[in-house]
Design a protein that fits this description.
Elements: H1 24-50, H2 62-74, H3 79-86, H4 90-102, E1 106-111, E2 114-122, H5 124-144, H6 150-174
Antiparallel strand pairs: 1-2
Length: about 180
């Protein structure tokens, strides 16, 4: 199916009311989106794990990568804030922090504003590990998307960001 094939049964484009029930073409598009996102998640994880080209650099799993990316970008945060920002349960983040701490990528420190609270912050080794993983991932996607135009790459980046934003808003409204 191509974009031109995504017209309502009366021939009008499907841009006025996406997700309209009773519209076979809209349902087909939503089914394609659902399946393609599932495929994307599976293939992206497999490609990243197999794409490591530098000996000795361990490929960071998605959970660790996202948590460390957040800490390096935003600075030290407590587990509850991390959980909220990442859309995860605090116990899940606590387990992920423990794994990152064991690897030497993060450390726990006391919150200077509240001595009872604990902050998680990246170590120098964690910053370096993230930079290496980001470089490998960017190189991989550079190869995978090598024959895509700059416009297509920019459009993909914009649409993925929009999808992530919509998913975040949906989660917030559902809670």
């Amino acid at each position: 199916m191509r974009i031109e094939d995504t017209r309502a049964t009366d021939g009008t484009p499907l841009n006025s009311s996406p997700g309209t029930t009773g519209d076979d073409a809209a349902a087909t598009v939503l089914a394609r989106i659902e399946f393609q996102v599932a495929q994307l998640l599976r293939r992206a994880d497999r490609s990243v794990s197999r794409g490591s080209k530098r000996p000795g650099t361990g490929v960071m799993d998605r959970a660790a990568y996202l948590l460390l990316h957040r800490l390096v970008g935003e600075g030290a945060e407590n587990v509850n804030v991390l959980a909220d920002r990442l859309g995860l349960d605090a116990s899940t983040v606590t387990r992920q922090v423990a794994v990152l701490e064991k690897a030497g990528h993060v450390r726990r420190t006391r919150d200077p504003h509240d001595g009872r609270a604990v902050l998680v912050e990246p170590t120098d080794e964690g910053v370096e590990a993230l930079a290496e993983n980001r470089a490998e991932r960017q190189e991989l996607y550079g190869e995978v998307l090598g024959d895509w135009s700059r416009l297509d790459r920019a459009l993909l980046a914009e649409l993925l960001a929009r999808l992530n934003s919509s998913l975040t808003e949906y989660r917030k409204q559902s809670e």
